[in-house]
Design goal:
The structure holds two protein chains of two kinds.
Chain A lengths: L6 H8 L12 E7 L4 E9 L6 E9 L2 H14 L4 H5 L3 H7 L8 H21 L11 H8 L3 E2 L4 E2 L6 E7 L2 E6 L8 H12 L7 E5 L4
Parallel strand pairs in A: 7-8
Antiparallel strand pairs in A: 1-2, 2-3, 4-5, 6-7
Helix pairs in contact in A: 1-2, 2-5, 4-5
Chain B lengths: L2 E2 L10 H12 L12 H20 L7 E4 L2 H15 L6 E5 L4 H12 L3 E5 L9 H7 L4 E5 L13 H11 L4 E5 L11 H4 L3 E5 L10 E5 L25 H12 L3 H21 L3 E3 L12 E6 L4 H10 L2 E2 L1 E2 L12 H5 L4 H5 L1 E5 L6 H21 L6
Parallel strand pairs in B: 1-11, 3-4, 3-5, 5-6, 6-7
Antiparallel strand pairs in B: 2-8, 7-8, 9-10, 10-13, 12-13
Helix pairs in contact in B: 1-8, 2-8, 3-4, 5-6, 9-13, 10-13
Classes of the chains: A alpha+beta, B alpha/beta.
Amino acid sequence: MALPYSKKLLELFLNPKNVGEIPDADAKATEGSPACGDMVQLFLKVDPKTKRIEDIKFKSYGCASNIATASIVTELAKGKTIEEAKNITWKNAEEELGGLPPTKIHCAVLAVDALHTAIENYEHQHGLLKEKVPTTPETITKRLKHVIDPRKGIDVIRAKTVKEILVRDGVAIIQLDMARGEEFAGHLEQEIKERISPLWDITSVEVKFTNG
Amino acid sequence: MKVYLDNASTTRVDQRVLDAMLHVFTQNYALPTSEFIHTPGQVVKDLVEGSRKKIAEFIGAEANEIVFTSGGTESINLALKGIALEHSARGKHIITSTVEARPVLDSLKFLEKLGFQVEYIPVNREGFVEIEKLQEAVRKDTIIVSIQTVNDEVGTIQPLKEVIKAIRERNQETFIHTDATYALGWLPFNVKELEVDLASFTAHKIHGPKGIGALFVKSGTKLTKLIDGGYAEFGMRGGTPNVPGIVGFAKALEIISWNEIERVKELRNYLYEKIKVEIPDSVLMGPADFSKRHPANLNISFKYVEGESVVLYMDMKEISVISGSACFSRGLEPSYVIMAMGHSHEEAHGSIRFSLSKFNTEEEITYTVDVLKNVIRTLRELSPLGGN
């Protein structure tokens, strides 16, 4: 058969490893969105002493490459320390899979991004940051560039869905150009909170809508 | 069990069509270039003209209104570009809908580059063109309106009679073209009743060969020839005629059985009923009223899963379907048809098109749903969006 996928990729697509959720995860991260047709969610369990990734699980909404790359990234990361896991690149994932069609490289990028974000979230939440840089609206903007507005299919910063960002005494306030009750409002609120609340100095996140 | 459910893309050639074509390749291979040609040429000329007549009769046209082309794509190119280039003195305004097939949209893009102005009429959630908006858009300088007869992705059959009436109320002169490539041989289609000026057809969606199509050009309609090289096809298309294709095309129409199409329709209905009962969170794309839907088409969006994975999984079980997912397309964009109908990205990504033919059996459909049910359940177990 002339499918553009390697044998390994098809194998993992049919029998992905490390599928599921970790209910008491030490950190989690979501990359992509249903609007893009690609989404990966990663859960980490880290040994507090050795900082080794004891368990890692994923869920995926997406094409075969998405499922297979997420699976391979969890296999690559499992058992590694978080410092070691930070060095895993999409290239590693691609090589392990025996290659990816060029149009599917972004799947590997997405899975690796999810791993890196989960580790970053872990560091924020467990006092492991080397430099404790205070969160600014810019830091938040950077993180929000990964949140997709499902109505527009692009991120909430580019889509100008986010009108204003304020940070005051550990409280992040994100004003959206969208009314509460609008389709996807609840979904976006939840996603924004998940993105911002792991930041080490943020104690609460408020998402505001045009109607309060 | 191999199950081919991608018949809206192309169909298997019927054995009777192939048999009719084979002797043309080996026995009747001369060229019917002129009236005064040698005897072998005369024989072939009779074959071609006999086929032309059969095809014309099938759609209620005269034989001299049928121009053979290399397929639906060329017919559409010839209709749109041919009319626009020939009649640009009348105006440069063209109207179409947002859910037309690529050959229409791409031909019009080409004309836009030449300075023509194209207006795209929206459709509703079931894919029906908004007739009031279409009527408002028609102007004095509108030279051609192109609206498809049926959409191959979601099966919507446009109310062409009403569409044409609405256009004519505003402008008697404008040319009307319909892309009937997925209608011919599937739905009753009569150019006289419809009062269209141009209609594009292809043979390979009705168990005929690939590489042959036809354009109905209403008698007296002038258009600019796109393929130069001789006076063939009433001076509208140069080149050596594809005689085996022409003979096969006529044969494919000759053997159309409306009873058989009724049986395909029942199989399609069975497929839908079974999916509805066995797979929760399946959303129908296209008309809910099946009398306004192509008899062989079903398009379902399965929530929480992405179409390419479904297609690949099904393919591994030897079932061929396609998806409107972005991953499935070369441009990584979800189906523009489903998006134009006002559905979400997610619904487009999760959409699966099933298109049947007379060669499908009930057993195949039962098998398909059995496999599909497991595929969707497996992928939903993986999905962070839920569904379990």
